[in-house]
Amino acid sequence: MNGHIPFGVADYFWDEASRRQSLLDQLMETFRGWGYGDVIPPMFEFDSTLSAQYDDRLRSGMYRFLDRDGSTLSLRPEFTTPVARLVGARLHDWPMPQRFCYGGSVFRYLEPQAGRQREFWQVGGELFGAPSPDADAEILALTATALKVAGLTQFRQIVGHIRYYRSLLEALQLDPQQTQQLQWALERKSEPLLEEFLRVTPLRTGQRQAVETLPQLVGENVDGILSLAERHIQNRGMHEALQNLRGIVDALRGYDIQDSFVIDLTEIRNLGYYTGVSFEAVTPGLGTAVASGGRYDDLVGRFGPPQPAVGVALGVDRLLVARQRQDGHGAAYGRQRIQPALALPQGSPDALAQVQRLRQAGLHVQVDVNSWPLDAAFDYAAETDISDVLLWEDGFQHHRRDEQGDFVLLGPLEMSRLSGRTAKCREEPSK
Amino acid sequence: MTSTVAAPRRRPAEIIEQSQPSAANGQTKQSLLFALPKGRLAQDSLSFLEQSGLSIPTDTESRKLILPAADGSIGFVMAKPRDVPTYVEHGAADLGICGLDVVRETDRAVYEPLLLPFGHCRLSVAGPAGAAGVTPAESVEAADLALKPASSAHMPGTPLRYMSQPRIATEYPRLTRRFFAERGVNAEIIALGGSVELGPILGLADLIVDVVQTGTTLRMNGLVEIRTILESQAVLVVNRASYQLKAAEINRIIKRMRLLTT
Predict the structure, then answer these.
(1) b/e per residue, A353-384, with b = 16+ CB within 10 A?
(2) Mean pLDDT score of chain A, rounded to an integer?
(3) Which pLDDT value is given to residue B172?
(4) Count of alpha carbons within 13 Å of B95, Cβ hemisphere only?
(5) Same CATH topology for B2-120+233-261 and B121-232?
(6) B228 backbone dihedrals φ, ψ, rounded to 5°
(7) In chain B, whose CA is at the least distance from the CA of A332?
(8) Which of A138, A285, B16, B185 could form a disulfide with A325 if both were Cys (CB 3.0 to 4.6 A apart)?
(9) Where are any strands of DSSP class E within A178-264?
(10) Closest CB from B9, B244, B258 relative to A282
């Protein structure tokens, strides 16, 4: 028993744990405020359920193991598929739309040098049964709201539409190798690779121009980019994709968050199951996305009657890092400065009754269970950053640690003096 | 208590933030941080940036980790070439320059908008010249040692897929494994940190995979090139988030550089 833990998982404790938990709570509460109801899917389920719709990258990153009866199980690598399964298989006859939100750990096998944990936390929401741009807009607006709730002040949502690219591919009728080449060029935003593709691939003029224009379909000028893209439409699918994006932009007007949007029609590096709009949220100081989501109209139908769906997942770990970078905080570990008050009941039942009343009033109080003398209590309090020590003498006497670290008797406990301190201790982690 | 919870992901940026001179703090927050490779590509990278009209640091020999440009507009980190894509992927730097060989080997999720007109070389498979029926000009002793590998044919013109389990010394384990795997060969990769030419001489490996510029080093060690895996040159890499968040500044730089590359 060496006490080690496997690579890629972590113990969170003290401030880091409370910050994490309270961020999760705040985000969940935000989703609930928009009418999303809690769902808690299992942590593992049949591999065939989870992996069917994933791309190779995600599939190769799943933790798989054998059940005792020989069936293959996987730890959930995200929440969308389990929730889609629930709606498709069990809740298909409940009135649509249905809104669900979730929060918890997901698991992915990542190379050690990837610099990420293998168990990480997500909070997200899924909206089933609405194909309209208004539903897409709701998810985008909700994401922006959640990011603000998480304390991020500067972020961008990069919005793409997988249908635009897939329809373009249909029009171009490329062989798999050419497709690979184009995809690689776009994923890496590489001009030389795109030029190379254009050089070796015979295309009609209109098609060639559509491909040549792709790198320009990126930026803040949403209207201009959509107009430019419209000039290079090759088929109905591309047209509908752009119409859909216009609809989403229109539907977003009421939310007043349009300034955080960037269009990127070449952003195609994404989970395999998206069928429409897809997006990622990025923030300064963090190289990777803090949230990603999109429309997946084909997923629920794998488990029951088809339903259009759109959703988002936010990375709690990344949000914590991003917020810390943004606020210029130090490392995210340590202890909150103010700890719950320590009460010494001195064996008196009345003291415990009084502590219960304090707790009911919303104060955080820990009770001495070692029958410490006052000195021992002060030592413990000083070492663990407790500022308030309450000693029972037919009523609590309030000792407060001063700036020098010495405990000073303030007199009989007045709840208001204590509440000011401990209420802060409850709020502290959420800031 | 520190070591348990400090996730490795935070390290690069933390080190940078801490070692940053306080004066540079405000400016790096909004403007750009550029990761440049130490060593072979360093001088070419700086001259290229200067030609592109960017202000470059005046004192590159400084031991400071972050160098401000002469006009303070951009910060520069001189990083080990292998670390450049890592810095950029994690957003510790917004942009970087490194070899395409390194970008492909490290396989980090970065954008690579431009190839730059310097640092040309190729990543090649090389083997002992003796085995190919050519007597090496240099050292007979080395040639004797080079004959030691018992593996099957690795002459030029012989398909590599005839080899059963070649032992290959390289600084590029990922690209090497993939190159041989594509030919159905399950190579034994011996990952080294440098001087891979020694591999065949010492009998450590049958072949090497390494970067070749002129071929002199290979010849001096009695090795000949057998295959080219990758034609490499310098490449501009950009962080995916910065590309959107600092689009105006980054596009301006790309535009200037493009003028010199076409």
Answers:
(1) ebbeebeeeebbbebbeeebeeeebbeebeee
(2) 90
(3) 97
(4) 27
(5) yes
(6) -100, 125
(7) B6
(8) A285
(9) 218-219, 261-264
(10) B244
- The H or E element spanning position A137 is helix A133-149
8 A C-beta contact, residue A308 and residue A131:
yes
The tens digit of pLDDT for each residue in A182-230 reads 999 999 999 999 999 999 999 999 999 999 999 999 999 999 999 999 9
> For B2-120+233-261, which CATH superfamily applies?
Periplasmic binding protein-like II (3.40.190.10)
Taking CB atoms and an 8 Å cutoff, what residues of chain B touch A218?
A: 244, 247
> Which is more confidently placed, B38 or A287?
B38
Q: How far apart are CA B149 and CA B200, in angstroms?
A: 8
Which residue is closest to B25 within chain A, CA to CA? A328
Q: Who's near A231: CB < 8 A, 6+ residues apart?
A: A213
CB within 8 Å: B90 and A288? yes
Of A11, A192, A334, the CB nearest to B4: A11
For tokens 């795997």, name the residue.
B181
Residue A346 scores a pLDDT above 80? yes
Q: What is the pLDDT of residues A83-116, one digit of tens each?
A: 999 999 999 999 999 999 999 999 999 876 656 7
- Would residue B205 be called left, alpha or beta, if left means φ above 0 and alpha means ψ between -120 and 50 degrees? beta
As a whole number of angstroms, the distance between CA A291 and CA A138 comes to: 15
pTM: 0.85
- The domains found in chain A, sorted by start residue, are 14-327 (3.30.930.10), 341-430 (3.40.50.800)
Residues of B in contact with A16 (CB under 8 A): 5
Structure tokens given for A228: 């430019």
H/E run at residue B74: strand B74-79
Any known ligand binding at A273? Answer: yes
CATH architecture of B121-232: 3-Layer(aba) Sandwich (3.40)
Q: Is B139 helix (H, G, I), strand (E, B) or coil?
A: coil
Domain boundaries, chain B: 2-120+233-261, 121-232
The shortest CB-CB distance from A192 to any of B92, B115, B247 is to: B115
ipTM score of complex: 0.82
Tokens matching residue A274: 């998206």
Chain B residues touching A6 at Cβ < 8 A:
none
Whether the per-residue pLDDT at B112 is higher than 70: the answer is: yes
Size of interface A-B (CB pairs under 8 A): 92
Name which residue leads in pLDDT, A8 or B64: A8
Q: What is the DSSP string of B90-137?
A: TTSSSEEEEEHHHHHHHT-S-EEEEE-SS--EEEEEEEETGGGT---S
